Amino acid sequence: MMAGFGNTTRKHPRSRGRAWSRTGPDRASLGIIGLICAIAGFFTLGIVLGPVAVVCGWLAMGRRWTGTQSVPALVAVVLGAIDTLLAVVWLASAAGPLAGGAF
Fold it and tell me: pLDDT 10s digit of each residue in the chain, 103 long?
């Protein structure tokens, strides 16, 4: 009656030891989503879409700089950082010269 015990790995050899879920978006999709957010961030909501693009690009790169990288993921990280920086500069300049307390 215990003849079937331990034979589950023969049917599903990759089921053991896998630490991620197959239901989430894959790395290629995250890279493309990050790239779209980075490009859209130049036109609207850069303070929101910039960090989203950086996070999506970073996750698409596998959270490391070394190894094989996809081009959309790397472009998403760089453009997202530029989006965020420009949005912060724009918000600081929109506050006006009195925001620093000089007068």
Answer: 556 565 555 555 555 555 555 566 788 889 999 999 999 999 998 899 999 999 999 999 887 777 667 889 999 999 999 999 999 999 988 877 665 555 5
Listed in sequence order, the DSSP H helices in the chain are: 8-11, 27-41, 46-60, 71-94
What is the C-alpha to C-alpha distance for residues 47 and 86, in angstroms, rounded to an integer?
8
Which residue shows structure tokens 């009195």?
98
Q: Are 87 and 67 in contact (CB under 8 A)?
A: no
Asked if 49 and 72 touch (Cβ cutoff 8 Å), the reply is no
69 touches 88 (CB < 8 A): no
First to last CA, the chain: 87
